[in-house]
Amino acid sequence: MPTGYTAGILDGKVNTFEEFATVCTRAFGATIHMRDNPMDSPYEPRTPSDYHTNSIQSKRERLEEIESMSDEKIVEDFNTQLGEDLKYHQTKMEEDKRNLEKLNSMLESAKSWVPPTEDHQPFRNFMIEQIESTIKVDGDPSYHVNKMVGIKKQMEEGINPKEYREETIQEIKSQISYHETEYQKELVRCKDSNDWMDKFFESIKK
């Protein structure tokens, strides 16, 4: 039975060593950026994504905004964010409760299922384990309940706008530094991948 790399040899899409070798490069990190493309897609040089550059831009805009905010605006901005966070956790808590009902119903069905043979018992156990592990992650509303308690406490206590501004500025600067560092790393990875492929193509030329 052919693999994804040898199928083209059998169906006539791959007829030369150069074509086969190029297809096989998809198993290596140099072409990881093409992992979702069809196997017979022509090679494209690796380029950095715009994730880090967009993040840097948005963080710098936020930095300028927070630096110029008045104390009153800082407090307003803080309370607005808390309100949005509270609404988010309320929604997620209700979602978790619904998930828990569905999961418990399915768990009851799995536990009540009688395996037709001893060989089916591990399968029953597996189903139960899968549901129980999901309940621990997606069926427990306590995380969101605790978050809501903390948010309401913050709303009651309020903030010192000067301290909040300074802490936020430092946090944003740290985030900008992170994205700048990661972007430079991505540039290096792209260059290394493209250099690897350039040497590969040179080596298979006749």
Order of helices and strands: HHHHHHH
What is the number of helical segments per DSSP (H or I, 4+ residues)? Answer: 7
Low-confidence stretches: none
Question: How many separate domains?
Answer: 2
What portion of the residues fall into strands of 2 or more residues? under 5%
Please report the distance between the alpha carbons of the first and last residues. 30 Å
Polypeptide structure, described:
With about 210 residues, the protein is an all-alpha fold. The protein has seven helices and no strands. α4 (about 70-110) runs antiparallel to α6 and α4 (about 70-110) packs across α7 (about 160-205). The protein is flat, with a radius of gyration of 27 Å. It starts with 6 loop residues before the first helix and ends with a helix. The model has no long low-confidence stretch (mean pLDDT about 90).
